[in-house]
Please model this.
Amino acid sequence: MTQDQGTTRVTGTEATSEGQPVKRVRADAQRSTDALLSAAADVFATSGVDAPVRQITAKAGVGAGTLYRHFPQRADLIAAVFRHEVDACADAAPTLVAQCGPAEALAEWLQRFAVFIATKRGLSAALHSGDPTYDSLPAYFEQRLIPVLTTLLDSAARAGEIRADVDPDDILVATRNLTLPAHEDENGHTRRMIALLVDGLRYGTRTHTPETC
Model:
């Protein structure tokens, strides 16, 4: 069994610590769930979190019954999409580190994070609606993304490619504030602003010229 923070995927014959068998998730059921989450993320980005269910199921290639079996309430789907997208953003970091220099990995990850923010049309209002389904999501966001960003910042600072007095919370807030909703950003404003933010982090270091992936 493999386990991420907040999520568990059963991949084989397992047992709990008490010796009780764990019900396995069939591969086709997992594929349906993954398809629904990806489809819902795309639909929410273009049509908002109140988009008709039929848009999501049509894009995922499944029936409405499958959606409601996995996510009985819309809030369940919205929360699952949020976690899925946070995980995807966090999991992008190791690939970028393997492909890029430290500061460039940081720069590309912040661009990835900005896309996450830009495409969450209507999600902020839903998360602040008072529905208890969403209560754990702010903590999940911080638990997954703050350590990733901290590691990227520390690596770039040790390499002398950015200044060392940077707080990861400040960078997440700054990136969020610089990010336009995806449907409003037709000329690449957000990407340019994030690039300027990273240039500010590089200012005064010994390797001011940015690397490329």
Summary: The first strand starts at residue 2 and ends at 4. The chain has a mean pLDDT of 85.
